[in-house]
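I have been asked to look over a protein record a colleague put together. Alongside the sequence sits a line of tokens, each denoting a local backbone shape. Please read both lines and tell me whether the tokens look consistent with the sequence. I do not need a full report, just your reasoning and any doubts. I have pasted the whole thing underneath without changing anything.
>
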Amino acid sequence: MARQIKQKQEYLGKLLKLIPSEIIAVYVAVQGLIPGEKWGLTIVTLVLLILTPLYLRFVQKVDRPAQIVISALSFIVWVYCLGGPFVLFGIHHAKIASVILLIWTTFIPQFFNFEPKES
């Protein structure tokens, strides 16, 4: 499935294309390998955050900057919800994380529309 969002895309299709699931899967796997390691997990999170736009642009061929930015923000929201370095630094609150994730996944795809790209 191509990640480029079309103007007439349905909610679920937009939601799936705004979540960098491959990057989140890598994060979850790495988090399982280095649990409790504050700086290691922080570095991995930052590296994956930097790689997210590159992956979307060059592998998934996403060319809309807004979609790339929102997908990178989605990665941060998911990492916060999963805990990660936020737990290790004492700034994770599970209930707040759940609310943020619910709001993010419910409303962002609703407002994410594009005009057709002119050729």
Q: What stands out?
A: Residues 11-109 form one domain. Residues 38-59 form the longest helix (22 residues).
